[in-house]
Structure formats: C-alpha cells, structure tokens
Design a protein that fits this description.
The complex is a heterodimer of chains A (541) and B (203).
Chain A: H1 9-23, E1 28-29, H2 32-35, E2 56-58, H3 63-76, E3 80-83, E4 102-105, E5 112-116, E6 121-124, H4 130-139, E7 144-145, H5 156-161, H6 170-173, E8 179-185, E9 191-193, E10 227-234, E11 236-237, E12 241-249, H7 255-267, E13 276-278, H8 295-305, H9 310-319, E14 324-332, H10 337-348, E15 355-358, E16 362-363, H11 368-373, E17 403-406, E18 409-411, H12 414-431, E19 448-450, E20 453-456, H13 461-480, H14 490-499, H15 502-518
Parallel strand pairs in A: 2-4, 3-4
Antiparallel strand pairs in A: 1-2, 5-6, 6-10, 7-11, 8-9, 8-10, 12-14, 12-15, 12-16, 13-14, 17-20, 18-19
Chain B: H1 4-14, H2 19-31, H3 36-40, E1 43-47, H4 51-62, E2 67-70, H5 75-88, E3 93-97, H6 99-111, E4 114-124, E5 130-136, H7 141-150, H8 154-164, E6 174-176, E7 189-196
Parallel strand pairs in B: 1-2, 1-3
Antiparallel strand pairs in B: 3-7, 4-5, 4-7, 5-6
Classes of the chains: A alpha+beta (541), B alpha/beta (203).
C-alpha cells in the first residue's frame, strides 16, 4: 500500500480502516491496480518521477459519508484530492496535484435530485455525468437543454468547478456562470449551503443566485476550500428553431470590423449561438482530410502575422477565397430567426465586399437523422465523437497519447487576435516553439476570446520534457504581454498562478489566508490551482 | 532483425503444452458453427470504416456474437445501448476499433468495475501481415500469439480470439509479441475484450 508523504504508515493504515468503516470496504481502493486507474492519461510527466500519483482512493455515496471521510482525513492529516467523474482530460484528469493524496472519488454520488422544466433548472450531485442528466431529462420528456462540453462524459459539477465551457447560448456557455446554489462539505466536516440555500426551507435555492451577504460561490471553483456535494444549474429552454448563416469578408484586416459587428450582434442577443470563425484564405482551421499547408502559403501567412497582409489578400483573391468567414447561429422562434439573420446581414454589409450564405432553418427538436449530422453539443446533446478523431491523416501525421491545453484569454477584437498571433509567432521563431501558423480564436466566452493550443503528450520522456519547456515559455511570454490562461493541468497550475502576480501576488496571498482559515490542516486538494496549505508552501515551484 | 512471426513463435516454444487444447477449440470454432463463448459476449463492436474491422465483425457474427458497427464514434452505442445494459448487469463486450473508442469504453468500464482483459494491437505493414502487441490473461497469451503467428487472415483470427478469451480479470494481462510497434500510434486497430472483474475482487 502506498502512503501519503509525511504520514506514518501506521496512521495511514488506521485512516484507511476508518475510511472502510465509513464508506464500505469495497469502496476504498489501495491496490496498485485500482489506484493506477486514477493516473492522468494525458500527464505531461507520464512515466517520470514527477508524475502525480494517488496513494489510495475512497468513494463515498452520501453527504454524510463525505463528512466522515473529511473528518478522518483531518484527524490523520491525510491529503485528499476531490474528483467528480475524473474526466478532466487535457486539464489533469483524475490525478492529484500533490502526489500521495487520497482521491476522494465522488462518482457514486450520482443522483439527479431535481429538474424543473418550468423554471428551467437542475440540482445534481457531483457524480452525475452530462449523459446521466440528459437521460433523466429525455426519459421525462422535459423541454430543457443542457449546455455540454465536448466530450460530454464528464460531470456538470466538475466541469463547472473547473470553469469549463460549452456551445449553446452565451448565458449557458460559461458553465460556472450558469450554476445557482451549492452545497459544500468544509474541511472540518461542516455542511454549508450558498445563496438562498443558506435559508432553512428555502424555496428558491436554484432560482436566485446570490442570496444575502457576500456571494462566496466563486471561491469554491478552481480551488480547494471545500468539497461540493450538490450544485444547481440553470438550463436552457428548448428553442423552437435553429438557424445558421455565414458571412465572408475579402481582406485580412476585415477581421477587425467583422468582430466588432459580431460583438454588437451577440451582446445584443441578435445572434445567440456559438460563432465559428474560419479563414478560407489560410485554410484554417484545417480539415482532417486537407492537404498539408504549402511552404509558400505558410510564408505568406507569416508575413501577414507580422503585419503585411497584402500578399495574403492577393493569394486569397487569386484563389477566389475570402479572408474570413464567420458562421453565425441563432436559437429562437422559427418565424423570428430569418429576420434576425437579415438584420445581421445588414450590419455586416457595411464591410465592403461582404458576402452571405444562408443556412437551413432547423425546426427543433431534431429528428434522429438530424442528430447524426450536427455537432451535437450545439444542440445540447452530450457526445464522445471527439474521440473518433486523432487517427492518422495529412494534418495529423503522428497521432499522440493526448494533449495539454495552453489556453490564454484574448480580448474580443480583431486587433487583439492579430497582436496575440504576432507575439506567439515571434516567440515561436525566437525560441523554436511549436506555435501554429495562425490561431483562430474560439467564441466560448461572452466577452473574450479563447486561444487553444493543444500541446501533444506522448510516452516519450524526452519529447514531453521539450513540450513542457515550450509550454512554460509560452505562459511566460503570454503573461509579459497581458494574456493569462483560464485553466490548466496541475503540472502548470503553480506556474500560471505565479503570473497572476499583481501587487506582489496579492491574490495568491489572499487565497492562502483563506486556505489557512478554512482548512488549517491543508487536507483538501493541496496545491490545486496554486493554493498550497501552510506546511507545503515552501515546496511551491 | 527478428520478424514478428519469429518473435511470436519464440513465445509459443516456451509454453507449448497448455495451449494445445485451446488451439483445437479455437480451430473448431473457425471451421464449424457458433461457439458459446462468442454468444456470452453482450456485443462485439467493430469500426465499419475499416475493411479489417468489418471482416472481424463478420467473423464474430458467424461465431454467434451479437455485433454492432460504429463509424468511429461510440456515442450512440454508449447512450442507447451499452450504458443501459451495464446499469442492469455488467456483461463482457469485445471489439475491433481504433484507440479512441477503446479509450472511452475502457474508462466507462472502470466505473462499473470492469477491465480490459485482452488487447491486441494490429498495425498494417505495407501490403504484408500486421504486427501485434498482445496483452492477454497469462494462460491465453501463448494461444493468442500462436494463432496470430499462424494465420494470415489476422482480422478473422482476432475475432476468434476475442470470442474465446477467458473473461478472467484475476490473471493480470501480460504483454508479449512486440515487433516494431510504436505505442505512440493511435492509428492502429485494436482487438479487445472488456469483462467484469472476477467475483471476490473489489468493484
């Protein structure tokens, strides 16, 4: 049996025995075979001594069992690491920040406690997956949608607490933002409810977010101040119809007015779906079966990134391609959506040379045949199709064992997209980093862009070392230019937390004061998002 | 350089006696009708984008297995079929897919106390036979190695092997028969079996 660092073997044996009494012997895992299931399949330290590894795992079934486990951990000062379904691949999976932690596996707490169609909310436990919640809704024929990440096998609670995103309307895409009310087991075993849930007998826990007094929900996301055991979510009423339309503009610099117009339309809720931006001229994002980019085009793009886009415009014109295309999407009444699209076209028409392609108006709900053809998450459908990709093709000649996301937040403007690409391209040249020729921003968030660079993970130690160094360099360069990442794997959480350093790391120091106050023994997920308990702080990298 | 066939046959030489009966059993399955083992599998999944996987599926069907084709995406199979079955009872499944679908199914299986008990990785060489990295229960490993070394129709051979693999997770899988197979390569077809953990083991 592995033992957490700093814990006597005899103490750990006693703790395990008490865990077994609390949750049942069959739900405490100590064999290597069982504990290895909690390895991060995408760990950038795979097979190295620094790979994060658990010592054991314990899977409670109820709030009372969670309280018991936390109290036992406090008694023996056993570090715990909480996971919901453990599917956070690309951002750490189910492996702990602090090697030797006992994984507190919540997947047996998998009850859907309430779904209200009229008020469009759900209340769930952390082990409920998006598939589970979707099935619950479908079996009852409720007319509400989930906003799901891609893939959708994770948990609404876990994904929200890690501040993941989805693909439907802006008010649902940022998953933590659309939660309403939490129940939390604190490090001392005490039970806390936030928002209206603090009122005994509250009838509006999932309907009014902030309750009374300081609104503390945020401190339980990307953190280690408690164990969330229930969480409410606002759901999207099933829309009547869906419509998409594509606008294409001719010049590289047209990205600036294109995004300005998109911002107006989305912030005004004239369009309310997940916009997809692409560059026909650059062939980005590249389709799986596309031919690899020619050196000639790569050189033209490099000049455009550096600020001279004349060649790229000529290239696009010669090929009859637009510089940019934005596929814009609308959810709402079937009668209203064509009118909204017409209005959007009017606004885009101010960009000289803009052209349009109408998409099909889809009456909802989708038929089974339609479900096979669409990007499922945009219709509230959980999917695993992303795992059917990754096979060898022209643009992916050497498939890998996973990826780690470098995911900086960029301002929502064309100028910012150009600036970020110029900075990352220069860094790529100067330091030999694997930077894509041009990064197309994603529209997950309502008021900002997200860049996503997927750094490959392999089982080759030397390759992984180089990748980690490149990742760290990009984090540093991004921070020097005012770009911060929104989320990362445990391997990089200290590194990135260090970049949020305004006023001598005032934010991190505040986190640490909170940690010391609410979890003085530092038993809950030590190190998560750079928050270390006092006794481990000196080992922060 | 030692080729795949030599590596695998070397493996057989070490443990020849115990496999004789099993070889006969699999061979009987190959030539005659269905076998009970194949019928014990809840489903045999195959990726119908690949000719080899289709041949695998056809052979599994011939042996009496209930088969299910996918286009690389297991979402519908999972949601409409397997999840419902595994909520009622965890029954073994087998398949031939790329890495991605198996990656998903293996992790989903862990949640209900199941494990991959057999895994053979097939990499198409240029026009020639495939190479293999096989993980199988200890007693089954020599048979699987021998059959793959002997048979040119590796896809159908793979189907017969998954249909006859003991569903025993106590015998921890062991690797063998490695011949220039890169484990970095996600483009390889993998034949596999997922089974419930043996009775007496923790879920």
């Amino acid at each position: 049996m592995r033992t957490p660092p700093g814990v006597k073997q005899s103490d750990f044996a006693q703790a395990v025995s008490q865990f077994e009494t609390a949750v049942g012997k069959q739900y405490v895992y100590t064999s290597d075979e069982d504990v290895d299931l909690y390895r991060d399949a995408y760990s950038p330290f795979w097979g190295e001594s620094e790979e994060r590894a658990a010592s054991a795992a314990v899977a409670p079934e109820s709030v009372e069992q969670v309280q018991a486990v936390v109290r036992i951990a406090n008694q023996f000062k056993i570090p715990l690491y909480t996971i919901s379904t453990g599917r956070n691949l690309g951002y750490g999976g189910s492996a702990p920040n602090y090697s030797g932690s006992v994984v507190l596996d919540m997947k047996r707490m998998n009850r859907v406690l309430d779904v209200n169609e009229s008020m469009a909310y759900a209340l769930v436990e952390p082990g409920v997956s998006y598939f589970d919640l979707y099935r619950y809704i479908q079996e009852r024929n409720l007319k509400v949608w989930l906003d799901v990440p891609d893939p959708g096998w994770g948990s609404p609670v876990g994904n929200s607490l890690d501040r993941g995103g989805g693909y439907t309307m802006p008010e649902f895409r940022f998953h933590f933002d659309c939660h309403c009310g939490m129940e939390i087991v604190l490090a001392n075993g005490e039970l806390l409810r936030t928002g209206m849930g603090a009122l005994p007998g509250a009838k509006t826990w999932q309907q009014y977010k902030s309750g009374f007094g300081p609104w503390i929900d945020g401190i339980f996301s990307q953190s280690n101040f408690g164990v969330v055991t229930k969480m409410g979510f606002w759901l999207m009423p099933e829309p009547d119809a869906f419509l998409s339309g594509t606008v294409t503009v001719p010049r590289h610099t047209d990205l600036i007015p294109l995004i300005d117009t998109l911002n107006y339309l989305e912030n005004s809720r004239i369009c309310n779906g997940f916009t997809e931006l692409s560059s026909p001229a650059m062939g980005l994002p590249a389709a799986d079966d596309a031919a690899p980019m020619s050196p000639e085009l790569a050189a033209i793009i490099a000049r455009a990134v550096d600020g001279n886009s004349a060649d790229l415009d000529r290239y696009a014109q010669s090929k009859g391609l637009g510089a940019w295309s934005a596929k814009i999407k609308f959810y709402g009444p079937g009668k209203a959506l064509p009118v909204q699209w017409e209005y959007a076209k009017e606004r885009f028409s101010k960009i000289a040379g803009a052209t349009f392609k109408d998409g099909e108006l889809i009456k909802l709900p989708l038929t089974p045949e339609q479900k096979d053809k669409v990007h499922k998450p945009e219709f509230g459908l959980p999917a695993l199709s992303v795992f059917s990709m990754g096979a060898r093709n022209a643009n992916n000649p050497t498939p890998t064992n996973g990826h780690q996301w470098f995911s900086p937040i960029i301002a929502r403007s064309g100028e910012a997209v150009f600036e970020a690409n110029r900075i990352f391209a220069q860094a790529g040249r100067e330091f030999g980093l694997p930077v894509p020729p041009f990064s197309i921003p994603f529209f997950f968030w309502e008021r900002s862009f997200l860049f996503l660079f997927g750094f490959p993970v392999t089982h080759d130690v030397e390759k992984n070392k180089k990748t980690r160094a490149a990742f760290a360099k990009l984090v540093q360069i991004a921070a020097e230019h005012g770009f911060g990442e929104y989320r990362t794997a445990p391997a990089y959480q200290d590194l990135i937390m260090n970049t949020y350093s305004f006023n001598n790391h005032a934010l991190r120091r505040f986190h640490e004061r909170l940690k010391d106050a609410v979890d003085p023994n530092g038993i809950l997920s030590p190190g998560r998002y750079g928050i270390w308990p006092r006794h481990l702080r000196e080992q922060r990298k | 350089m030692t080729n795949r066939r030599e590596v695998l046959q070397g493996g057989i030489a070490l443990t020849s006696l115990p496999i004789v009966a099993n070889v006969a059993w699999v061979a009987a399955g190959a030539s005659s009708g269905t076998n009970a083992s194949a019928r014990a599998l809840y489903r045999v999944v195959f990726d119908d984008r690949f000719a080899a996987a289709r041949a695998f599926g056809a052979e599994a069907r011939r042996l009496g297995a209930a088969v299910h084709g996918i286009d690389g995406d297991i979402t519908d199979f999972w949601y409409h079929n397997l999840d419902l079955q595994w909520r009622r009872e965890t029954l073994a499944i087998a398949g031939m897919t790329l890495h991605g679908p198996l990656f998903c199914l293996e992790r989903l299986a862990w949640d209900v106390g199941m494990r991959v008990v057999y895994r053979a990785e097939h990499v198409s060489a240029r026009g020639g036979p495939s190479t293999y990295l096989i993980q199988a229960p200890q007693g089954f490993l020599p048979l699987a190695s021998a059959q793959h070394a002997r048979e040119n129709d590796w896809a159908r051979c793979a189907a017969r092997l998954v249909a006859s693999c003991p569903l025993d997770t106590r015998a921890y899988p062991t690797a063998t028969g490695v011949d220039a197979v890169s484990t970095e390569d996600n483009d390889r077809l993998i034949s596999w079996v997922i089974a419930p953990r043996a009775r007496g083991q923790a879920a």
